[in-house]
Each structure stands twice: as structure tokens, then as C-alpha cells.
Known about the structure:
By secondary structure, the chain is an all-alpha fold. It has one domain. It is 60% helix and 0% strand. It is built from 2 helices and no strands. It has helices spanning 12-26, 36-53. The N and C termini lie far apart (33 Å).
Amino acid sequence: MLHxxxxxxxxxxxxxxxxxxxxxxxNNDIEESTPRDYIVGYLCKLISELETENK
Length: 55
């Protein structure tokens, strides 16, 4: 699926967030109503922006 967060795919940050969401879904802590790529990508974008601001 195409999404605006391609730059973050295949990064360690993407993998960590994706695995964390997997755990939350498996434990029934959250339910996803948005495609996973958009959830992970958006969180990667927020963290990346925060890291940029703090430099």
C-alpha cells in the first residue's frame, strides 16, 4: 500500500514501533482501525521531528 511514510520503512525505528504494536494487538491492548503502515509511519515521523528539534 502506498503511504507518505516510505522514508521510514526498513529503518530500526520502524521495526521497533511495528513490533511494539504487534505486542499491543496480540495482548488485546489496542485494536487497529487504520492500516498499519500509516500508524507506524506517523509515529516514526513524530519521533523523527522530535529528534530534529532537540539537536
